[in-house]
Task: inverse folding
């Protein structure tokens, strides 16, 4: 048996899937929450059962230790040699790391050096890579970066209109995120349309709690809505997306804030659909409230749709055309209502949904026969994409 771990470590969490390769069959999955906080929890799903362990888990090292104990206790693995690959999601690989990369001590140090660009994610991800390297020295270990798909952006799209020295000296540029998902759905779209990816202009809409839109031309990311950090772009569950930065000092004075990180926290955690609606960051709740006539929820949805349409319009203009628009992630793949609203508002481009085909959560082409542009629903699968990259680099 050849098993590959897909690992996604956050500052206080660790999500995992154990996937049988090359069959791409998910054998077990779960997460550890509240690492370094009290009342930590490990949850493991295997063979239709869910196992829970509640104990204080002081650090990621202990989280991985406990995970292995549980995998053995519930007979998920017989011995460590069953696990031949480990893929680690890493949030920021800067502009030099253009592809998934074998994990070496040097690579881990590079991930640590880039911590300034992703302070909450890169440090625990580097730590978790070290722990796994100790635990599974024989397994092929690969780092898969959220940013690498976007390293193909041309300078005109990654540079901000500020003095160029700030890019040259401090690395201020657009890095983007969700690259693994955008790449995965773009590749699937080409297969579903039965056309070479290298000939297609695609707009991929990853609409989850965090959300981003990417322009993919000839198989390469040419522009994306997230920026220097994931705060930029469209309206998200709790993130503001694009705003005029002059709002920051103005609001800090009004709110008596002296630390700019408190202001950034508001923009990351209390804004977006949550801040606008006052209801929830969860689109299901907001759609429900809007249905009952809640005016703030109605306006939150209007703004959400509007920002997505603006980015789609921008990318149709800058790519000078589009062959396919792809919807994915929590909202994108599940909300027929949202897809319908977004596409109806841009029908001038000759884009039209087939309402019956759109009534789905599965992989499907959902545009009408007469639509000038294909519209596709493609559930994303970042874990499988990570496991495939491990196989590719074996
Ligand atoms: P992330 O990985 O960024 O946390 P997901 O891609 O899982 O997020 O997306 C989560 C969001 O998907 C939830 O906040 C919820 O609003 C939305 N979602 C899930 N199912 C539906 C649905 N049926 N209709 C509308 N929104 C949905």
Result:
């Amino acid at each position: 048996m050849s098993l590959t771990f897909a690992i996604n470590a956050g500052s206080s969490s660790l999500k995992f899937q154990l996937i049988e390769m090359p069959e791409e069959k998910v054998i077990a999955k779960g997460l550890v929450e509240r690492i370094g906080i009290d009342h930590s929890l490990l949850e493991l799903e295997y063979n239709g059962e869910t196992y829970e362990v509640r104990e204080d888990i002081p650090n990621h090292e202990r989280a991985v230790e406990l995970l292995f104990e549980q995998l053995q206790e519930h007979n998920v693995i017989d011995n460590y040699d069953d696990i031949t690959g480990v893929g680690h999601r890493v949030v920021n690989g800067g502009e030099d790391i253009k592809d998934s990369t074998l994990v070496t001590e040097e690579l881990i140090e590079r991930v640590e050096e880039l911590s300034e660009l992703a302070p909450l994610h890169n440090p625990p991800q580097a730590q978790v890579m070290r722990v796994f390297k100790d635990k599974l020295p024989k397994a092929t270990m690969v780092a898969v970066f959220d940013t690498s798909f976007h390293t193909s952006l041309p300078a005109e799209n990654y540079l901000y209109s500020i003095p160029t020295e700030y890019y040259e000296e401090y690395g201020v540029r657009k890095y983007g995120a969700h690259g693994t998902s955008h790449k995965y759905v773009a590749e699937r779209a080409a297969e579903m349309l039965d056309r070479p990816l290298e000939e297609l202009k695609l707009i991929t809409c990853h609409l989850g709690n965090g959300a981003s839109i990417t322009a993919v031309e000839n198989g390469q990311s040419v522009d994306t809505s997230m920026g220097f950090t994931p705060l930029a772009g469209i309206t998200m569950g709790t993130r503001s997306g694009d705003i005029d930065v002059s709002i920051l000092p103005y609001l800090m004075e009004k709110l008596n804030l002296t630390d700019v990180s408190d202001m950034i926290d508001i923009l990351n955690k209390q804004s977006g659909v949550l801040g606008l609606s006052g209801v929830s960051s969860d689109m299901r709740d907001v759609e429900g409230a809007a249905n009952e006539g809640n005016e703030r929820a109605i306006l939150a949805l209007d703004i959400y749709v509007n920002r997505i349409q603006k980015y789609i319009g921008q990318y149709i203009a800058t790519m000078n055309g589009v062959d396919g628009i792809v919807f994915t992630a929590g909202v994108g793949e599940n909300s027929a209502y949202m897809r319908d609203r977004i596409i109806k508002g841009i029908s001038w481009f000759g884009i039209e949904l087939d309402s019956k085909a759109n009534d789905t959560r599965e992989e499907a082409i959902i545009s009408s026969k007469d639509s000038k542009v294909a519209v596709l629903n493609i559930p994303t699968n970042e874990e499988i994409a990570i496991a495939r990259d491990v196989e590719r680099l074996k």
